[in-house]
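FW: tagging you since you asked about this chain on Friday. Here's the raw sequence from the shared folder, copied in full. Didn't touch anything.
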Amino acid sequence: MRLKRVDWIEAAMQMLSRQGIDGVRVEVLARRLGVTKGSFYWHFEDRDKLLEAMIEAWEEETDQLLVAASEKPPGLGRVRRLLELVSEAFGHLPDASIFAWALRDPVIARRVAAVDKKRIEFQIQAALDSGMSRSKAERNITFGYLAYCGWVTREEVAPDTAPSFRVFTKWLEELFEIPAPSGVSGRSYRGSAKAD
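HL: got it, structure written out here
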């Protein structure tokens, strides 16, 4: 079966998560995928083009999550939906690996900062739409987002020290003062399998 461009990007993202940016090597990826390097060069000019495609895919995933969360009416329900979507995607979101990559590459760091800003502004607007004051919205959302960044990093390097994602999002919902959905006593998350 002939590999598609997206297959290389997904394999590279998995390699990034396992071995960091230095582990993303064309020869290693080709061996893992069971193809020759010629297959890679059919889709990418060089390794740098693959790295560019990887960061673009990560940026696009944020855009897709925000668009999906925007299907909810304006207000904190959008933040709740965003947390649910992140929970459903948990396991293939490479945030921790991307953050680690950004520590070594100033260009990637700038792109991560732009994504951070987009994610934070989306949630601040949702909080403002719910009637929260700007100062409180900025404080709570920014704090919550930075806590999320710390959680994904900690879960990556020392998962036994982090609460399950379900518990963590409950804490965020309390911080953001998101009311429980009417008529819903609880919900399930597909995040971490650790006990609450």
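FW: The chain has nine helices and no strands.
HL: agreed, and Residues 80 and 184 are 13 Å apart (CA to CA).
FW: great, closing this out.
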